[in-house]
UniProtKB/TrEMBL annotation, chains A, B:
Annotated source species: Sporosarcina soli
Gene of this entry: hisD
E.C. number(s) listed in UniProt: 1.1.1.23
Family assignment from sequence similarity: Belongs to the histidinol dehydrogenase family.
Name by which UniProt lists this protein: Histidinol dehydrogenase
CDD domains: Histidinol_dh
Length: 425, 425
């Protein structure tokens, strides 16, 4: 893992503008799939499942027997871990629940904001080797707390027609109402527009491959979606108080996700930088996912030496990392200097993996610098607001002429008339 | 305006699935514009402005002299109206400002949510005849309250190279930092990716034509955007307590926006329905924008007769209208039955036009049924959240084995190791 100065880093990484690539071929394929599902419904879903997942399914819905079977395959340890994770995720997300509110103004005016849950939501959960029960919890629990009426889940079936048992158990634990064995763009189309078997939902959340991400972008507007995820990143700000073996392990835990993942440590200490460099090299040798990690660290992993923490924080705010670890003296005092980051982990005993599974806050975080303008997935993503306006006759008279003036200035005379007709004689 | 039963209405309006039309030709044009602006910057902006707006500009930024000129053209009435509107919009939106929060858990655990403003935002304001100063206030004031550092505005210039003076005065009043004379997809591209003159922003909000809407959809992900707006609608639920001349005026005020606008009244009273029908016919004759209104009412305007308010509310929740007026006895008591609506206006003296300009809540509302899954524009659109996680060594020990179990179940062994390395001996 190379040690560089901030200048060197900036030269190497001239900020691109935007991570999205336009790929008309991909878009055509994805739109073709969406249109076919809209036209042919279940039939299309089954054909795509045969084509892409290599399995012919009679029934798209996971049965109670399949859930039972999955439960039987769990170890006691996994069950306990999942239960603990659920409790802690629930405790944190309960705090996010927004309340409706009202204010009163002069002459009987009442204004407010009514907060209500979405009627339904669909969660995409990737299948195959990357089957993450934690993703199920992180998406379904906030929806449940919001009060969503119907939580559907889609996930591609394995070649034998089953779904990963850990994922099924997590779905049951988190209160998912129905699980469909569908993946890819076809699953997104089914959730957005409905088929004979799949009921349309109001919002689609959850991670997926390029097909899924692109399909979500296309249906966005007809349904709501969460963020479009790009490659993810961790940035550790460290001083001499940080333990090199901890920081190395955290960088590697990010790097093992994906060759495109970014793991960066910014430090004010050259002694620490060198210790970290050695530790990273040593730990890579021991890692199971060594090839992915090596590639990711070589391409995107850097130790950046800076003179001051101020400089480090400026870098962080420009990077807007998904995960930020502040492994410095009194990290809590540095919090006000951080503007852009998905999740901020403080101190030596708050590694990213703690947040991925157990601490409580959501692990679905804005990636690729989008933390500069978006938030972690939360209960607020599964609720919406309606404005409430109540004016009395008396209150309206006070503003009637002003509204008429502005409406006329905009050329909207029927707007003006709707006030005029209510004016007292 | 035709009076129909709910059955007849349902037959005529078999719910389409999704309002977005895929139009590859439009998309290609829009993407071409975006790419050209990314490559050629200001030069491209000037060329497109010449091509689309018919004016050759030296300078893209509105000068202090132009603001001064605009101020001079204002009437005292308009200035007063704008000032009042600003005060009321500010008062309501102040209530939306979210606070950071922290919770403590056992053994020194500290979790939280830090709320911070976006660094910058860009507001699109349509030009030409449809120049709406109210749009400026409704977009800029919440951004200002959120604490956004830099508020930019783009709006297409008129043929003489100037910007509508009402819009400029509203921009100054609302605290916009810079106004660019650019419109269309090229303005969205400039805001999303930056040029020599235009600084990139983090989020783009505001209404626009098909080019603008499509460009926003394409840059979404690289920057944040507000909702993609479709045709708008009003739904009035009325009983015998409603005044037909008021309801007619409100329906027409929506219809004058656009031939595609929808104005519907659902009523339990056939006496009221007939009185409303007559009143609508009479008011159309007097309206300035008669042709637009007539078209809109003929195509999409209906009076729907129902037996019960319950039936009416079921319809409302399926329609998820942008504007809902409850003109029934004790409207406040009916509020709990409304799940899906952008803004809810209560009683005879709370017409939509009051909300468009003056009441305080935002007039940028989810259209075309998207109120089922999204919210009015608000201060929350200009802020983002970061999760805060602080565990102590002691607290981490309690959950270390559980995290290791789940991480291993997911095959992410470097995640497991980052916990393992922190376990007490």
């Amino acid at each position: 893992m190379r040690i560089v100065t901030m200048e060197q880093y900036s030269l190497e990484n001239k900020q691109g503008n935007g991570f999205q690539q336009n790929d008309f071929e991909l878009d055509k394929t994805v739109l073709g799939i969406i249109e076919t599902v809209r036209e042919q419904g279940d039939q299309a879903l089954k054909e795509y499942t045969e084509k892409f997942d290599g399995v012919s399914l009679e029934d798209l819905i996971v049965t109670p027997e399949e859930f039972e079977q999955a439960q039987k395959q769990m170890t006691e340890e996994f069950r306990t871990g999942l239960q603990k994770a659920k409790e802690r995720i629930t405790a944190f997300h309960e705090e996010q629940k927004e309340k409706s509110w009202f204010i009163q103004q002069e002459k009987g005016i009442l204004l407010g904001q009514q907060v209500t849950p979405l009627d339904s939501v669909g969660i995409y959960v990737p299948g195959g080797k990357a089957a993450y029960p934690s993703t199920v919890l992180m998406n379904a629990i906030p929806a449940k707390i919001a009060g969503v009426g119907r939580i559907a889940m889609v996930t591609p079936p394995q070649k034998d027609g089953t779904v990963n048992p850990h994922v099924l158990v997590a779905a049951q634990e988190a209160g998912v109402d129905v699980v469909y064995k569908i993946g890819g763009a076809q699953a997104i189309a089914a959730l957005a527009y409905g088929t004979e078997t799949v009921q349309k939902v109001m919002k689609i959340t959850g991670p997926g491959n390029a097909f899924v991400a692109r399909a979500k972008k296309w249906v966005f507007g007809d349904v709501a979606i969460d963020m479009i995820a790009g490659p993810s990143e961790i940035c550790v700000v460290a001083d001499d108080s940080a333990a090199p073996e901890f920081v190395a392990a955290d960088l590697l835990s990010q790097a093992e996700h994906d060759e495109r993942a970014t793991a960066i440590c910014v430090t004010t200490s050259s002694v620490f930088a060198e210790a970290l460099q050695q530790e990273v090299a040593a730990q890579i040798e021991q890692a199971d996912r060594k090839l992915i990690i090596e590639q990711s660290i070589t391409d995107n992993g850097r130790i950046i030496l800076v003179d001051t923490l101020e400089e480090a924080f400026q870098f962080v705010n420009e990077l807007a990392p998904e995960h930020l670890q502040l492994m410095v003296d009194n990290p809590m005092e540095q919090l006000p200097f951080i503007r852009n980051a998905g999740a901020i982990f403080l101190g030596n005993y708050s590694p990213e993996a703690l947040g991925d599974y157990m601490a409580g806050p959501n692990h679905t975080l804005p990636t690729s610098g989008t933390a500069a303008f978006s938030s972690p997935l939360g209960v607020y993503d599964f609720m919406k607001r309606s404005s409430i306006i109540h004016y009395t006759e008396l209150a309206l008279q006070d503003v009637a002429n002003d509204i008429i003036t502005i409406a006329n200035a905009e050329g909207l005379t029927a707007h003006a008339y709707s006030i005029q007709v209510r004016k007292a004689d």
